[in-house]
Design brief:
alpha/beta; eight-stranded parallel sheet; 10 helices; 14 strands; 36% helix; globular; Bact_Lucif_Oxidored; Luciferase-like_dom; LLM class flavin-dependent oxidoreductase
Length: 339
């Protein structure tokens, strides 16, 4: 029986897609196999992180295009694409193309802010406009307009043998309703709601009104829905790190507990000038994790999750964790398996 009054409606997972520089194919293939397995296990969605100049997925649209041809049902998302690295017009074309290839299964998540280590990369990323770039919400607003089919030029028609459109092509009509904003602050939550996006919450929030993680995240969810046209029906997905140990070997359980213990100190108080708060990783049996989630104020407000896989584990660990989430934790949270 579920431990919460609101059963879980959509069960998803998130992976960073790590790879070895000496053999990048193996890591990317592992990510694709994990997504395929997620579909077989009945997950509703699979999400990939985005990393630049690191050993993780730098081109999520390319990876999800490949995944779209190896799956048929599972939704495919990004959590999240940092817009500071992107041209909104070109990204809109890529998003629409992958959505068409996947037959309407793409869920693009984006975020704002300057690129990480901007002083070190601005000379190669924006050599002529580095000091003029706007890394705020306007970049996302432009992307939304392009994805939703707003005109991008005043020219269309036939020129010689070529036909031109005044909006991004291909146009995927349903994609605009499946755009997500990865937000961890009240300002971001409000903006996402006002612009009709869906909200991705994670294990990181900004400590503004409290130093209790669940209370902070709850305030973000309620602020978002208060400003969204759909109100309480507006979609929110939570992305905590959960590591069920039901079928784990003793060695795996010890590894998982060490991982969570090493990351625990950062959860005690706000971190850095931005006062970021981190949620503890949830390690234990599915029953134990379900009880902790049932007591989480923000979790009680959502019926969609994209549980984050730990960054540094092995493929076999992900197989065990995802199997336990799908077959044990999901049912404990009231989620009925997808057909």
């Amino acid at each position: 029986m579920p431990l919460t009054s609101k059963p879980l409606r959509k069960l998803g997972f998130l992976t960073i897609g790590l790879f070895d520089e000496a053999d990048p194919h193996r890591g990317h293939e592992s990510t694709l196999r994990i997504i395929e397995m997620g579909e077989r296990l009945g997950f509703d969605s699979a999400w990939v992180r985005h990393r630049h100049l690191q050993y993780g997925i730098s081109s999520p649209m390319a990876v999800l295009a490949a995944a779209s041809q190896r799956t048929s049902r599972i939704e495919l998302g990004t959590a999240v694409i940092p817009m500071g690295w992107e041209n909104p017009l070109r990204l809109a074309e890529d998003l629409a193309t992958v959505d068409i290839l996947s037959r309407g299964r793409l869920n693009p998540g984006v975020s704002v802010g300057p690129p990480n280590h901007y002083d070190q990369v601005k000379g190669v990323l924006y050599p002529d406009t580095a000091d003029l770039e706007d890394f705020g919400h306007e970049r996302v607003r432009r992307l939304l307009d392009f994805v939703r089919g707003e005109p991008v030029t005043d020219f269309s028609g036939v020129e010689g043998f070529e036909v031109f459109s005044d909006r991004v092509q291909p146009h995927s009509p349903g994609l605009g309703r499946r755009m997500w904003y990865g937000g961890g602050s009240l300002r971001s939550a409000r903006w996402a709601g006002e612009h009709g996006m869906n909200l991705l919450t994670s294990s990181v929030v900004k400590a503004e009104e409290s130093e209790d993680f669940a209370e902070i995240q709850l305030s973000h969810i309620r602020t978002f829905r208060a400003h969204h046209p759909d109100g309480d029906r507006a979609r929110v997905s939570q992305g905590l790190v959960v590591i069920p140990t039901d079928t784990a070997s003793p060695q795996q359980r010890a590894k998982y507990e060490r991982y969570a213990l090493q990351r625990m100190p950062r959860t005690a108080t706000p971190q850095g000038p931005a006062r970021m708060m981190f949620a503890p990783d949830l390690v234990g049996t599915s029953g134990e994790i379900a009880e902790r989630l049932a007591a989480h104020a923000a979790f009680r407000e959502v019926d969609e999750v994209a549980f984050a896989l730990p960054f540094t584990f092995d493929h076999e660990d992900y197989v065990q964790i995802l199997t336990d989430i799908a077959t044990r934790l999901g049912p404990a949270l009231g989620r009925q398996a997808a057909p």
